[in-house]
Amino acid sequence: MKLASLSDGRRGPEQIWNSAPQLAQIPPISPSSLVPPGARVVIIAPHPGDEVLACGGLLQLLSTLEHPLQLISITDGSASHPGSDVWPASRLSVVRPQESVEALRRLGMPLHSLKWIRGGFCDDALAGREAQLSQFIARYLQPGDVVFSTWRNDGNDDHETVGRASANACSLVSARLYELPIWAWHWPAREGAIIPWQRARKVRLDTWTVARKLHAAHAYASQLAGDPQIGLAPMLAQVLLERMREPYEIVLS
């Protein structure tokens, strides 16, 4: 995950995820309605852990339906602690993939059959490589795939670039795209009008599924620990973990 501080001036306690009245009006949708029988599911994560934040619950549900699964990790997330001697990029480039393996194990993903593509792109630098990124993603897609990626207006440069690149790649190969907001839920409530509520669908999660998702998020030890020596707060802020307790996930169709 490449997460900015959630304590900056833009984000107060009344954020979209815990105050927007539209949330209660979002129609539910079942995983079987999102993904036709036999279709392959492709999750595209800009940074390691975005797949857990965005759709860790949905991933569990789709896995039980025995859909073929492919995860594309665009970056290795090694730029998450700039200037840190405790978490330099050289260490994170090794640790973050290990954390991802453990997180997927905690979700109950079938690691023996999960196809996992690591892009090796540099995080915080995707905007200038959008065309190349579209071609890279398209290379691993097939007609009829159902693709889940970050929303192209999520409020984070990498998330938005991957969202646009995913949309372009899907159009090239005739795959179906669903977009996943992550940062957008932490905008101030007054900015909720920007969310395309008419496109939103709610995937309901039971208590056990939510618990496994939270357990998976805690596999990212590097993101739970900042670097106090340089004033760097944890990337996985408490407010993000609180939102992950909600008994649903939102997809944009």
Automatic annotation (TrEMBL):
GO molecular function: hydrolase activity
Keyword annotations: Hydrolase
Coiled-coil annotated spans: none
Gene3D superfamilies (alphabetical): LmbE-like
Top-level lineage group: Bacteria
EC annotation from Swiss-Prot or TrEMBL: 3.5.1.-
Signal sequence segment: none
EC class name: hydrolase
Entry-linked Pfam families: PIG-L (PF02585)
Name listed for the protein in its UniProt record: PIG-L family deacetylase
Lineage: Bacteria, Pseudomonadati, Pseudomonadota, Gammaproteobacteria, Pseudomonadales
